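> tool_call: predict_assembly(chains=two)
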Amino acid sequence: MGEVMAQEMIAASSLVKRFGEVTAVDNISFKVKKGEIFAFLGPNGAGKSTTIKMLTTLLQPTSGEITMDGFNVVHQQEQARKAFGIVFQDPSVDDELTAKENMWLHAVLYGVPRAEIDGRIEELLGLVELWDRRNSRVKTFSGGMKRRLEIARGLLHHPTILFLDEPTLGLDTQTRNLLWNYVKSLNKSQTMTIFFTTHYLEEAENIADNIAIIDHGKIIATGTASALMKQTKTKSLEAAYLKLTGKELRDEAASGTERLKLRYRARGGGFR
Amino acid sequence: MRVVYALWLRQIKRYTRARSRIIGAIGQPLLFLLAMGYGLGSVFKKAGGGNYMHFLVPGIMAQTVLFSAMFFGINIIFDRQFGFLKETLVTPVSRLKIMLGSALGGATTSLLQGLLVFVISLGIGFRPYNWAMLAVVILILGLLATALTSFSSGVGAFVNDFQGFQAINQFLILPLYFLSGALYPLNNVPTVLRIIADINPISYVVDALRAALINQSHYGYTKDFLVLGITVVIMVLFGVYRFRRIEA
């Protein structure tokens, strides 16, 4: 792996995903450098989740190429999968198992060395303040607790890239702060590359080094928060975002049924 | 191997924690055993068939494993619905190991349920002709369960809703069961029924169980195990093939 490639932790080029005649992701390209915090923003149904699914090997792209830490996600799936951790948008823990059992299973699936498993579990469950509840079944947890568990689990195998798909959805302010502080410290101490999506634009404004905005399957703007504000002559990222995506909505008003269809297919298309 | 073990263990834990499921899955076979066994026992005896309850027990054990293992695939659909499937699919573990670990876990619990029926049948007077043959019984039920949970995982991998899964299962399970000789001897049945039974792999499983438990066989061990072996290979290959194409 060359010096240049190692610097590019995520590289997507000319990425396309079609479900039937509907194009959910339409020829997008972007790069995320090592140690960068990258925010991927867009309205519901814009193609965010489909993109994340392709990046994380859950969906095959129709065309285009993705490399993760230099590994092709289609042809070198195993190496690519080892490189990243992901906290999904919706729950993905096993409710019937305890917090500790969920963590243990994840550690085994990722081949964490046996001698390190217990220590890491204790450290991470302590961090998200779930150590006291380690032997409770997850089905007795509140939504926020499950979320914290998912975050702890996503970090268990020390990934070099961390995907956070709307990680703070439904969390209270305390937990959101705790989460972002920890993510920032990981980013600093381990030069972990962070790729996240959110609907809270102030989070993106405060935390992200770079931002990409996707709408109707296309990336419509990229840059730092201040560059995007400058470009749109606005004073906050939220205003910039609304200016960029709001305009698109009016353009697309005539083909509203297409949009609905796209959303439906984009959500259901993965189930086959 | 550790990965397969971890996924196997997950299924065992889920099973032992859902007591109602154990009772539910055992209820139907027991109803068959008691109602048919006591209901038809005297007629069977008069016709010269001997003890119907003893004849029926191996069939009901096969039924228990057939029903519970064929429903194992619903767990894949549950895992997809509740998100856990994605967690396993993004890990650097081959789909083969994910499928095998889970299916073997399901097979183990199905096998346990089949053996539970055996234990209950002891309570109503059933005795195997040779206790040592219990090892063969476990082997037969284990192979059957592995074949069916693999097949069922494969179905669960491409059917995305519960209704669709149920429909496919009902369409398969009942004919496999009723046309297998689990409930009646195949010696004197009409030709059409005999031909159907001959192409139904469950017939050979029931036959092997009957041979092992009450020393009574229609096809003979060699044929029974040959068919069972081929069934296991085909079903596991089907499961793996379908599971490799899974996308979340």
